[in-house]
Amino acid sequence: MSLQIKKEEGVVYDPVFLKILEDIPGGVTIKTNRFPTATKEIKKGALLNADASSAGLYNVIKTVKLTAAGVTNTTILAVEPADHLFKVGEKIFLQGGTSGTITRVSSTAIAVGIAHKVIANGAVLYEAAAVSSSAALYDADCILRDTIQVRDEKGDKLGNIFAGAVVRGTVDESELPYFVTSQHKIDLTARIRFA
Fold first, then answer.
1. Distances (CA, A) of 97 to 38, 122, 134
2. Strand partners, 103
3. CATH code at 55?
4. What's the pLDDT tens digit per position in 44-82?
């Protein structure tokens, strides 16, 4: 039997992970009660937090980036990516120690129930621990290794979702599906290199 080359050229996809040095043996269990009803999957490269109240459970860290400057005293923020994970009722950090409760969500905008200061275009906003707090709800502990499905074809939420999680390695930041704050990078600095 001989080796036959069937294709001589092709497209190479730039991977999220440039190098994986260590992952969590046996993987992790992702909490599924924190996703919008339209979310079908969580993409590889999402940051994860080890849930303090339940051993083995992990939360996905939620972030968005402004696509236009957040104007003073408005409650609508234009954001990306379109498949962001924020839901109504969650807290989002705006700027200058101000966080607000999300009152409405679409794929391109988030409405917040308070007036806020001007926020620069390109600013990364994250899920806050409380209103009027700059603290993130979750610290980053690891990164999702593969894209996972969180709802079936009918839109029903799946139960426990097991997934691989990387704790040491190098990622291509431009390939990450969700944005990373400077604080989340600091959380992972000793183990993850952002290239």
1. 30, 18, 5
2. none
3. 2.40.300
4. 999 999 998 887 899 999 999 988 876 655 677 888 888
